[in-house]
User: Fold these one by one.
Assistant:
Number 1:
Amino acid sequence: MTNICYPNKHELLSVEQALLEIRKTIETVNEREHIDLLQALGRVLSDSVVSPIDIPPKRTAAMDGYAFAAGDVAAGQAAKLQVIGIAWAGRPFLAQQRPGQCVRIFTGAVVPEFADSVIAQEQIEIDGDTVSLPLDWQPYKNIRAAGSDVKQHEELIAAPKKLTARDLSLLAAAGIEKISVKRKLNIGYFSTGDELVALGGPLAVGQFYDSNRYLLAGLLSDPNHTVSDLGIVADDPLKLEQTFKDAANHYDVIISTGGASVGDADFVKQTLEKCGQVNFWKLALKPGKPLAFGKIGRCWFFGLPGNPVAVLVTYEKFVKPGLEQLAGLPARQALRLRVRCDSRLKKSPGRQEYQRGILYQQAGGELAVRLAGQQDSHQLKVASQSNCFIVLNADSTGIDAGEMVTVEPFSAEL
Ligand code: AMP
Ligand code: MG
């Protein structure tokens, strides 16, 4: 892994450059697991899947009605057909038929061989076992051809893909019980800081409850992760070193928060340097300036800033894409929308900003956004009320109320 050199020590690395560096560096895990379809929601399909059968396997009725052979009835003429049996879904009609006869049929039932048309029950008149077709009956309707969804040997799903409920139903329709997915990532995370206290105890003067581990626990929740909470580590280089070394032996990825800056109590960078390889970046990003990224043995390391909102932003912009790449997913862009902003947004040029916003739908259906509140990087209540980032480019000097802005909703699937 190469360290990016700054043309000038004080120059900040752009979000794009840092992300590119992470994408260039992280390799996908190779190991796979063969798992039951019911366990596969959200997992990363590792091998493309081909359908062993036609779906539907046979010609089936798309409507409740009557199945008949169009050749038995002259076009444009009313006709009477004799009902000689019933084709149920799951119970086909197997007997022979003679011209002028038809079969009562229900949605999903196999269409008898002689028939090439199904007329909906609403379109006919019935009298005893005689069905009268209207003048405007149409041939070849309401039959789903075998393989009209998927043909035998056709690719069902191309790997890699994070499997959705829709994918699972498709695989199930093909009768596929087990599939190959990438193995889960083992991830350990901890907080650093002498001022931090775990929940459950009182706060002494100068202490703060450790909120970052709860943020990370939520952000890391994913079927492809097995996560371990490693607690709080003091601002002590020896304790940090021990934690790094132990964790590196157990996990694919370690994530720390705090101590990543260059203050006197910030030891993450120097400890990482001592234990492994390090890329330490000062990013042109707000919130979230310092980010340590590197490797200890075979374990990837992300050293995030301490301020909770900076953790949120650096996780979304760097850790999440890094974990997705490690898990075998193709690179993707966050969904971005251009919407009108109700608020005036203040900004100094220099760093790309991810302000916390509230995206909402106006009465007429148009989307708009407003600032969720004050934007200091410790303000968790505003973050809690927000549902999107408002993205302002590095060179932006802010906007007036009523201008268009770019937003990234927190939850969006594309
Ligand atoms: P640091 O990067 O360690 O200098 O931390 C920056 C700010 O974030 C300080 O105000 C810390 O108290 C705060 N902070 C660091 N870690 C946490 C945490 N786990 N939970 C809440 N606040 C934190
Ligand atoms: Mg600290």
Note: The mean pLDDT is 95.
Number 2:
Amino acid sequence: MSKIIATAAIRGAHKLVGQAEVELQKAIDKYGKEHPVDYPNTAYYLPIMYLFLGQKVQKLGDLEESMQEAKKLLADIPSDELWLPYLGDTLDSGVATLIAEETIEALKYLGEQNPVQGIWLGFTPDNILRLQGIKLVDGRMPGFAAIVGCTKKNEDAVKLVRGLQERNILVFMAGHTNGRAIAEQLAEENIEMNWDTFLVPYGKEITAAVHALNFAARSAMTFGGIEPGDMDAARKILLYNKDRVHAFVMALGADKAAEDSQLITDDKYATAAGAINFGFPVIADVKIPQILPTGICTYEHVISGIRLEEIISRAIELRGLTIKIEKIPIPVPYGAGFEGERVRKENMYVQFGGKYTDAFELLRMKPMEEVEDGKIEVIGQEIDEMKEGEAYPLGIVVEVAGRDFQEDFESVLERRIHEFISCANGIFHMGQRNIIWVRISKEAHAKGFKIKHFGEILLARMHEEFSKIVDRVQVKLYTEKEKVAKLIEEAKEVYSQRDDKIGGMTDEDVDEYYSCTLCQSYAPNHVCIVTPQRLGLCGAYTWLDCKASHQIDPHGPNEPVAKGECLDPVKGMWKNINDYIEVKSNGNLKRFNAYSMMEDPMTSCGCFECIAAIVPEANGVMIVDRDYTGMTPVGMTFSTLAGQIGGGVQTPGFVGIGKLYISSPKFISAEGGQKRIVWMTKQLKEEVGDRLKAELERQGISDLFDKIATEEEAEDPETLLQYLEKIGHPALQMEAIM
Ligand code: SF4
Ligand code: ZN
């Protein structure tokens, strides 16, 4: 442990705690101690205080207590005579620093200094945390990098983040070096920065780096099922992060204003000490003193003097990340970081589908001899013959052959086309089947991206992801109007046959359900039981998906589980399933009902698409999706609800569900099914509308759809009840739900 670092970190902590106290006092003088203080849309109060102190900060007065605690953690700045080569004081100062930074950042939300402006995004709300969390869970995202500072040249900054994006590493940015921040460099180079592109600029001050750590703290609480509060919880959360959230800090550039002619300012050292508490090591391009292994981080704590060209690979080694890099022969960068990227109209070269032209994608199984592996055909115009700004028809037909391939897998593979294509930088892809919408950006076109490159992407990814079942792949890309018009009709025929097949499949038709334990990497006791009529709560895994996934990787997260004796057909309980979940939940669960939310319901890991909760006043249930940030009739926002039910525990009355389950004939059938739905968010109601209407019609209760209230009718139970009484909602006449 270097003394220089300890001195700098402790000195930095003193300074930041001092600054936080001054700002807090100013805020209290102005607003009073009772004035509320919070971050937007989170159920975790100020997460750093909640984690380390078990403190639920809600008003300015509470922060005085936080500051007292921070001061207790501050060690004296070591003098020359009294120097112990001991990391503890530095780490405690790191925690004090984080408390100070959380205070400073939270105070910004009082209004004076809006932290969300220009390129800066400020605090990450819980709904985004969940969305990104599943990417950490399923391995699409191997970890995150928190970048502090800037590079010498803008082009180095672009190269660095492109390298991280290609490796699917989430990038947080905070702080600056000599007044310049990497996010500003990227903005100058027109790099799109937001949650969809995995490039997240938190704020220009170093204090905004605390948002990366409160993100990590909440990940552990959300997905790890760890209750915050005592010091042991803090230890568990830190261990959890060290083991499961593969993150590191990248400090770039030398600060001219650094104290004692060191290369980095004291407040950066102090913040680094805070990150080391989470087991997140620091990697720097300038030669600051190193801290080698002592046990907190998995490997070294601080390594420095690393050249920019090597910094990513050194960081990966340092943190032990597993990275899959797809090498695909296309002229644009490729990686999950680009998946959510949009191509705006001004930046578009050409587009396909949407409301402009016919476009579709279809994956079909063919006999071995009809598929020539690696063949790509463009039938119609290539991009060189297309005019800038125009819309063209597009048919993407993927033909696969494999000894173990089954027709049932077609739709599973086809659904991945969206993700595969979206990961190319400068390509936008939305929708599936015959409702796709694709754009190629001017930049991608300038780099030489062609229609045939869609084929290259699909060949590479299909082989990579499905090597167990796919031996040969060929791709046909149609851009000829008449051909596309004809083929789209044939494709529609195939889609509807498939729908009949899975849609028509019932839980009674099969002897085996599938488990999914993918989320155990985050929620160690959580198990999803996926049945034909109830998909995984994340919405990403249907029974067929699990079946395919099991065949592709028999030792993977999905296993068939024989149902065995049926113990209760109405609630959906089977003997073998109970035995299975008892083992897989490490003894935490004994019984499970597939169709009930009141009695032994399914547990939730944290990445549910929606939450269904009972509204006792209305004798029914409401369903809220994770994009809805408003208030619900149970008096809780999605974030608050999610905080209560995540982490792999059963919470009667509340259940995490996938959107498709809402229109399933088995939707909480133990409690009476869809007739119980009294409230849904407007957006969700629209989204699942067609399927839900069809199911209601099947049950002969078509009029129910219009009786389901949304936030436009009510956001509290009293107004909701009045509304339901007025329109005569059937839930009011049903037997008491509790
Ligand atoms: Fe996680 Fe369940 Fe989805 Fe599997 S099905 S990824 S366990 S939420
Ligand atoms: Zn999950």
Note: Residues 516, 518-519, 528, 536-538, 540-541, 605, 607 surround iron/sulfur cluster (ligand 1) (CB under 6 Å).
Number 3:
Amino acid sequence: MPNEKVLLCASLILLSQRALSSTMMHTKCRGKFYPRGNNKVIRFSVPDEKVRWAVPFPEYAPVSFTTAGILAGPSFADPDISETLFKPKWNELDGNVDRRSHEGTYEVVDGYPRNKHGRTGVMGRGCLGRWGPNHAADPVVTRWKIENESRVINPVSKKPVLQFVCIQRKDSGEWAIPGGMVDPGEKVSSTLRREFEEEALDALQMTAEERQIVGQKLKDLFEQGKEIYAGYIDDPRNTDNAWMESVACNFHDEDLKGILHKLELKAGDDAKSVKWMDLDKELELYASHKDIVHQVTLQHGAHW
Ligand code: BGC
């Protein structure tokens, strides 16, 4: 295929991903209990047909919840909206804090940003630090599964099997992409690499010299990332006024003897385990991560 066609294809996939994200019906943030509330914070039940704000729901009375940890005002969190000195610039880059959504303008109702994907049964910030979008970045690091020096082909789909670096989260125990929050003022490309090194290689425990060696090895791989997704994430921590968004990029090593077949994985920071996981539709992953890794398999023509 000539290059322009490849580019056109890639942009179409990206456009359809963005469209998909803005119409996504969230479900994981409508479970019975809000996480980290000791199963005491019960979400107001929102049936599918009443999720959209445009649909009248006069009896809607969501519980208001923000964890004590967030109310204590850690450095990564916003103050309460009632604080008179707090003058956030919604939908804008507010100093170092990015209050823009990947999905366009969000509404601010009675001073509170409103989740574009609809009702969640909880008001306030829950355990999220920012009002409005809370930005994360997710590196999907992939290689081909090999046996006897060749790619493994799935007998049913007849397609080669892709593997990605997958971590088990300490907070929920679920398997996930080794992503993390974008620090204020941080470039997404730096977050992607930092989170991968911290969670999948335990870089926080390395000496400066070891870190430099690993960094050098990963340099080429991380220079050729491909954006897979940018938008809302159906995260169990979302509320009506605070939600997760992420930019996911794929870093793929095509070389069957390349760096990703030699790298030693070691869980660190927010991860309790790490492993190469085969990509397959039976996978269960945290939040919307399954949709993201599915896109990666489509782009590589891999088994799903
Ligand atoms: C995780 C990311 C995830 C985001 C939204 C962050 O805590 O580290 O991997 O995409 O939350 O769910």
Note: Residues 4-20+135-300 form a domain with the Nucleoside Triphosphate Pyrophosphohydrolase fold (CATH 3.90.79.10).
Number 4:
Amino acid sequence: MVNIALTKGRLEDNTVKLLARAGVDTTPLLNKGRKLVVNLGSKYNVVFAKAGDVVTYVEYGVTDVGVVGKDTLMEMGRPIYEIMDLKFGKCKFVVAAPRGVDIFNCERTTTIATKYPDVARTYFESLNMDVGIVKIEGSVELAPILRLADAIVDIVETGKTLKENGLEVVANIAPISARLVVNPAALKLKKREIEDLCDILSGADKA
Ligand code: PRP
């Protein structure tokens, strides 16, 4: 039995679709309601958790593998083994600012609002740029509108949220997609089962 931690929300639908395409019977997930643990036959057991907690559960080995976005992995910076790029949940980390604002040639210290302070800090340090960082929990696009920040570091998928809130991309930081992560001890103890899971997922990915 392989225990899989799945990220609730944005990645959930695509993960379940990928498992179904890979031949896993996902019907127990159709009416799961608020259940957080669902058994999928004799081979797989899935749990649903917040992205950061998926990383923690895999790190502690209480689940063998997990599906989580590269954005969460970059922000948490934990030494966790990424075994596969699942190639969905594609988006990118960007710096965005109100149209026409040049944050790179600003006289005073720029303030950046973000859900991802470590990603933002690492990026601006790489540019030797001194910035103030304010952590926001969501709808980060609001921060420049409310003048809490000059710009944001956030994930962008379609670009619609930026556009509808008067912001534009001023720098690209990194591409993002969903990753399959694995606990190193589980990979030794359940090598064949985990390799089988990778095989069916990569087959389904190509289908
Ligand atoms: C994410 C991200 C942007 C938006 C980008 O937010 O933080 O706000 O999606 O998507 P788009 O480029 O397709 O418009 P999410 O929906 O996860 O909610 P949150 O802002 O509450 O974190």
Note: Residues 2-89+177-206 form a domain with the D-Maltodextrin-Binding Protein; domain 2 fold (CATH 3.40.190.10).
